Amino acid sequence: MAAPVNRPAPKPEQQTPGRVVLRADPDGHFRVDATIGGRRAPMLVDTGATVVALSYENGRDLGLISGADRFDLRVSTANGTVGAKRVVLRDLRVGSVQIQDVTAVVLSEGAMDGALLGMSFLGRLRRMETSGDRMVLER
């Protein structure tokens, strides 16, 4: 998991019920403004990430963790092994594409900036296809 730079995501190029077409940013990355439980969560699409990964700040702001939580799950990232807490996101949506009960991790404080949309979401789609600077997500 690489540490993404937290920048705004472009609006989906096309959107129909259960289908979103994303366009890559100038750096070639796909960024989305996902919603978790109805709250905005900017994410970098990362097919190399096993699960959705949230920074400590994301987890705190979304009410997924508290100061007393333990981060005793060890996960490998591009920056080495860090502590994390496993959580389940009851509702994760990218445009009109919605998946319920998505496994995710909240990383320990300072371990990552931003959030990654990993395979615990992407792998549950009927279709995920990349062609050039476009990515199709279909439920």
Automatic annotation (TrEMBL):
UniProt-listed InterPro entries: Clan_AA_Asp_peptidase_C, Peptidase_aspartic_dom_sf, Retropepsin-like_bacterial
Keyword Protease: yes
EC number: 3.4.23.-
Keywords: Hydrolase, Protease
Pfam family for this entry, one: gag-asp_proteas
One record GO biological process: proteolysis
Bilayer-crossing regions: none
GO MF annotations in UniProt: peptidase activity
SUPFAM superfamilies: Acid proteases (SSF50630)
Protein name: TIGR02281 family clan AA aspartic protease
